[in-house]
Every structure is written in C-alpha cells, then in structure tokens.
Amino acid sequence: MARYSDWEWPNAIESFQQALTIARETKNRTAEGAALLGFALAYSTLNQPDKVIEYSQQVLTLASETKQRSVELTPLTMLGVAYVNLHQFDKAAVYLEQALVLARELKSRQSEATVLGMLMICRAERQQPRLAIILGKKSVNLLQEVRTDLHDINQSLEQSFIQRWQLCYRYLADLLVAQGRLPEAQQVLGLLKQQEYFEFVRRDAGAASLTQVHINFTAAVGIAVGEC
Known about the structure:
There is one protein chain. By secondary structure, this protein is mainly α. It has 10 helices and no strands. Helix 1 packs antiparallel against helix 2 (29-45), helix 6 (109-125) runs parallel beside helix 8 (155-178) and helix 7 packs antiparallel against helix 8 (155-178). The longest helix has 25 residues, at 129-153. Mean pLDDT is 82; it is low at 1-7, 198-202 and 204-228.
C-alpha cells in the first residue's frame, strides 16, 4: 500500500472508496480486504477510532470468511489500539490478546512488541502496574532484538526505529518510576541513546551477541497474558 502524508489521507480515502466499489463489483475479496484495511489505516492516522473499529471489523470478518488467518493480525491489533484510544481497556485487551497469539504464531517480532506495549497500557490503566511492567519489558526486549538487527544493516534505519518506538520505552520507564524502581527506569531510558545502548551491551558480560541483551526482570516472570 502506498504511503501518504497526513494532508493526503482525505484524497486516499476517496481512492479506497473507488477501489472498494470495483472490488465488490468484481467479487475480488482480496482487493476488498485491502481497500477496507486502507480505510482503517487512514482513519487511524486521522485519529477517528470509531471509524477504525468499523473498518477493522469488516477486514476481520472478511479474513475469517476467506480463511486467511494471517490477515487477521493487523485488524485485531488496530481494534485493540482503537479501543485503547477510546479508553475502553477491557475491550482492547480482548482483541490484543488474540493478536498476541497470532503474532507469535507468525513470528512477527514487531507486531508482538506492538501488542505487548498496548497490553502494558491496558494493565496500567486497570491498576495492575506489576503486570504492566512485565508486559512492557517483554515489549522492549523484542524491540531491542529488532533494533540490533537494524544496526547491523543500516544505522539510519535504527535511528528511525528508535524514534518510532520511543513512547513505549518512556511509558515503561514512567511505570517503573511510579513503582520506585528508579535504576530500572534509568536503564530503559538509557536504551534510547545509542551511546548508552552500546555501553550497556559491553557491560553485559553474559551476552554472546547484541541480540541477547535484555532488560533484567525483577518481577516474577512466566505469567501468561491471559492471567493478567
């Protein structure tokens, strides 16, 4: 799907409507799903969560009917994010937990990190800071794995990646500060800085490679998301 600037999304929506009409006339369900997903992405960018929910539900239904399980990941995640934006955290968690299972099946680390990060917010808003921190750390650890892969390929890509995901790191750090776990919060924030990141790698004597560097857990690990 083409990339659009914020000011271009209204024109994009018109294009998606034309594509959807043609897809339905020709009974092309793959094209129909792509157009519906385009609507969901557009309204997500335009901060209209009700519309995101409307179109993501249609994509999810279509994917289920056509037995394209892998296609369900994006609409499930978008539904979760939309409900988080509406502060309906219980509904958000239902979709996010489904998305988490699918992200792990598909071995999509960035998708899994996204979902874990949103579940972190859900648990925090439901006054479950300990579980929120566990989920947030798992999210950041996955992001660190992706980041190190990008560093090996292209450092400018790595910097863009950090900018994109910094809110997840900062949200986790805020949770840790609120729980009085200042050294861990500083560690998380330090990961945002390239120099401190590589110093952290060098300090980790047990890491055989960059991708093995993880934030240390002080809370109990092994709690399933469904138990959160």
